[in-house]
Design brief:
single chain; mainly alpha; 2 domains; about 80% helix; globular
Length: about 400
């Protein structure tokens, strides 16, 4: 376990808290508060269309913002300054979003907020690569796995009946974000991991770019499967058993979040001690594929939920550890922020691909065909990682 007396381990703990703060910054808004606000402004009939439009332009702004501000933090060599500016701007815009009284105004506020949020998240992601040595990146990924659960918990907190209403909920979210992020800014490690002195040969540069591309494609393959199941799990479960409720699906999601975080931490610590950073990623990709095959073949609800649990746990561990291990294979330490912004496209592209993929397959061939394709993608991820050297 992390030793708070160690400067690096202390930074990792505070960094994981800050990463959870970044997740808290968007999960309650995008999953609960924004749909409610859009429905209030547009009504239920047109609200779905407006919400889809907001999600699209928001994803584009987030993608561009991650690349831009990561790159700016590279060339200015000032991660903290950009993180502070992004924290202040995104929290202020959260409050503004809660007070938006028109749909065009809400769209503009969301775009500006996405840029402010990624002004914080882009440099924050790169900062871990500057400070955390390779033999601690497994533990870093494991601790980062707690962020989604804390994001979901924050959404449940601000929607407790009687606690707060309307814009006040987003004020509470902004305060939670600040509480989580400020400690690492005040007490985070100052010493950076030195960049290699030797200039890479053209061959070494090509190999480094190749490894980075393999990691990116592997994440994209698993992320497409994860995003598809996140959006359509309820409808699939309903096709197995018409009595399935939305609350039962939510409990299944919650159970996987609760179990996956400590599991990712255990696996990440093992990968550090064993010097095997890539092997757990390969294993998780294979298990994800097996879970998807089980879903495709599931004869009833119980078998389907068990197979989804296998997929959900393994994919969650894969994505958490992948985020940290990516830091070791980026080809240029001096452009780490920019490259991580490009890597983040693997998280946003699936939200654009997934609806069309699902609608093209399910009406024609059913969910088993969709899950079969997603299983192939997960196996492709495992194959892409098979020749990655532990030292990479």
């Amino acid at each position: 376990m992390p030793d708070p007396r160690s400067p690096i381990d202390r930074f990792i703990l505070l960094y994981a808290l800050a990463w959870a703060g970044g997740t808290i910054g968007y999960v309650p808004l995008l999953s609960i508060l924004l749909p409610v606000q859009v429905a209030g402004l547009a009504g239920r009939t047109t609200g779905v269309d407006w919400l889809a439009y907001i999600a699209l332009v928001g994803a584009i702004a987030a993608s561009l913002g991650g690349i831009l501000f990561g790159y700016l933090s590279d060339i200015t060599r000032n991660r903290r300054g950009w993180i502070v500016a992004g924290l202040v701007l995104s929290c202020a815009l959260l409050v503004l979003i809660g007070r938006a009284s028109s749909l065009p105004g809400l769209v503009g506020a969301i775009v500006a907020w996405q840029l402010g949020l990624n002004m914080m998240l882009g440099p924050l992601a790169a900062w871990a690569g500057d400070v955390v040595p390779d033999n601690r990146k497994g533990m870093l990924g494991g601790l980062m796995a707690f962020a989604p659960g804390l994001g979901a918990l924050s959404g449940a907190l601000v929607t407790i009946p009687g606690l707060a209403e309307g814009p006040t909920r987003l004020v509470i979210v902004a305060l939670l974000v600040a509480i989580c992020v400020v400690p690492v800014l005040l007490h985070g490690a100052l010493v950076l991991v030195p960049a290699p002195d030797a200039v890479a040969t053209p061959r070494e540069a090509r190999e480094a770019r190749g490894r980075a591309l393999q990691m990116w494609l592997a994440r994209l393959a698993v992320q497409v499967a994860e995003a598809t199941l996140f959006a359509y799990l309820f409808f699939w479960l309903l096709s197995l058993d018409g009595s399935v409720s939305d609350s039962g699906t939510a409990r299944l999601f919650s159970a996987i979040l609760l179990v996956s975080a400590p599991l990712a931490l255990l696996v990440g610590r093992w990968s550090d001690r064993a010097g095997q950073p890539i092997l757990p990623l390969q294993a998780c990709a294979v298990v994800s594929a097996l879970g998807l095959v089980g879903m495709a073949l599931a004869p009833n609800l119980a078998a389907g939920m068990l197979a989804y649990g296998l997929f959900g746990l393994s994919s969650a561990v894969f994505l958490a550890l992948h985020s940290a291990q990516t830091l070791r294979i980026l080809p240029r330490p001096d452009r780490r922020g920019r490259d991580l912004g490009l890597f983040n496209l693997a998280n946003t592209v699936p939200s654009l691909v997934m609806p069309g993929l699902t609608m093209a397959i399910v009406p024609v061939a059913g969910y088993p065909a969709l899950f079969g394709l997603l299983a192939v993608l997960a196996m492709v991820a495992a194959l892409l990682l098979r020749n990655m050297r532990p030292s990479a």
